[in-house]
Design goal:
With about 270 residues, the chain is of the alpha/beta class. Helices cover about 25% and strands about 35% of the residues. The strands form 3 sheets. The chain has a 7-stranded mixed sheet with strand order 3-2-1-4-5-11-10, sandwiched between helices. A 4-stranded antiparallel sheet has the order 6-7-8-9. The longest helix is centred in the N-terminal third of the chain and has 15 residues, at about 20-35.
């Protein structure tokens, strides 16, 4: 089963303790440092069920949210329907990102970057972000570190979600950085039996050096790296890292002409759906 197909139905209950609001505040502080009014249109990659999308939309940003899972996007669309400016949702793989115009910033949270399981995929995704990002625009993302994956390798857990049960099994190979986790979801049926859905998730652990090199090759310069959304200093013992990168001035965007830039993001919102 494609990852986040069955999980979409219980994802918000499973991630009820995730600090989305702190992530949103981390993003807003970064945008404010860019200058007032400089960041209006934001892309969220791998938006999932739209929890971060919703918070940023409520803060007044124009959101474009992309995810590879139609099931997750369906939940996200419903969740964000009452936002002052309803987000635009796109069913896209981040490696094949294709937008209708430039964006002022991009965000990608909850180690979604780790789902890019090869260096070539990582570099391609970063290049696609850079292509649509305006010069000076920020790209913010977080990753699990090799230490975090190593600590999870070999673990298993069971979690109850309403009347359903989720069983997790984690594996990790340090040499290649390959990480897998299988989740089995057991759904109760009327006759007392349970229906089982299984998803296999593949990720990769990247070193900080690999991530910084991939950013540089995409034309994105590193601004900062933290160990928390509050700005705690990164260290070799960090289990998650938060990156802020900026598109270099002078880099050409997807919708720019020599001698001046023009933007097609003003295309009617209906035509972008």
């Amino acid at each position: 089963m494609i990852p986040y197909s069955a999980l979409a139905q219980v994802y918000d209950q499973l991630t009820g303790d995730v600090a989305y609001r702190q992530w949103a505040e981390f993003a807003q502080r970064a945008f404010e440092r860019q200058g007032k009014g400089e960041t209006k249109v934001i892309l969220e990659l791998a938006c999932g069920t739209g929890s971060l999308t919703q918070l940023l939309a409520q803060a007044g940003y124009e959101m474009i949210a992309a995810d590879i899972s139609p099931e997750m996007l369906s939940v996200a669309r419903e969740k964000c329907a009452s936002a002052p400016c309803p987000p635009i949702f796109l069913c896209q793989d981040m490696r094949e990102l294709d937008l209708y115009g430039d964006i002022d910033a991009a965000v990608c949270c909850l180690d979604s970057v780790n789902y890019l399981t090869g260096l070539r995929d990582l570099k391609r995704a970063f290049r696609r972000v850079a292509l649509f990002l305006r010069p000076g625009g920020l790209f913010l993302f977080d990753v699990k570190t090799p230490l975090a994956f190593a600590e999870m390798g070999g673990l298993s857990s069971i979690q109850q979600v309403g009347e359903a049960f989720c069983a997790w099994q984690y594996g990790y190979e340090a040499k290649s950085g390959a990480a897998q986790h299988q989740v089995d979801i057991f759904w109760p049926e009327a006759d007392g039996r349970y229906l089982r859905s299984t998803e296999l998730h593949e990720q990769r652990a990247y070193s900080r050096q690999q991530l910084e090199q991939a950013l540089a090759q995409a034309g994105l310069e590193l601004v900062s790296v933290y160990a928390s959304p509050e700005g705690r200093k990164a260290s070799p013992k960090a289990r998650r890292l938060y990156f802020a990168a900026r598109k270099k001035a002078g880099e050409t965007g997807a919708w720019e002409k020599p001698g001046g830039s023009w933007r097609t993001i003003a295309v009617s919102r209906e035509s972008m759906r």
